[in-house]
C-alpha cells in the first residue's frame, strides 16, 4: 500500500483556501495527481518497494525548489530521499546541505 506524504506545503488546485501541510498524509488523490505532485517534488511516495522505480524530479528543478524552501524538516526529507536513491546526485546533496546550513545560521542570529 502506498503512503503519500507532503514534503512542501501547497494549496489544493480546486480550492485555494485548502492547504496541505508538510508531513500530512494524502489519502483521496488519484494516481495521476499523485504522480504529478511527486514529479514537482511536493510529495513523496512511500511503500514497501524500492523508491528507485519512481520518477525523480530533475536535479535543476529540485535545486530551485530547495533554494526557495524555508522548512528545514522538508529539506531533511529531500536529503534522506536523495541519499536513499540508487544513484544520489552530488549536486542535489550539496544544494540541500548548503540550504539547511544557511537556514540554521539564520535562526541562530
Structure description:
The chain has 109 residues and is α+β, with helices and mostly antiparallel strands. The chain is 47% helix and 13% strand. The protein contains four helices and five strands, in the order ββββαβααα. A three-stranded antiparallel β-sheet has the order 4-1-5. A hairpin with a 7-residue loop joins strand 2 (10-11) and strand 3. Helix 3 (72-84) runs antiparallel to helix 4 (90-108). It is globular. Mean pLDDT is 86; it is low at 50-54.
Q: In summary, what is this structure?
A:
It contains 4 helices and 5 strands, in the order ββββαβααα.
The proportion of residues forming helix, as a percent range, comes to 40-55%
Strand numbers in spatial order across the main sheet: 4-1-5
The chain-level structural class is alpha+beta
The gyration radius over C-alpha positions equals 14 Å
Please tally the helical runs, counting DSSP H or I stretches of 4 or more residues. 4
Strand content: 5-15%
Secondary-structure element string: EEEEHEHHH
Assembly classification: single chain
Mean pLDDT: 86
Distance between the termini: 44 Å
Number of strands: 5
Uncertain residue ranges: 50-54
Q: Largest sheet, described in full?
A: 3 strands, antiparallel
State the shape: globular
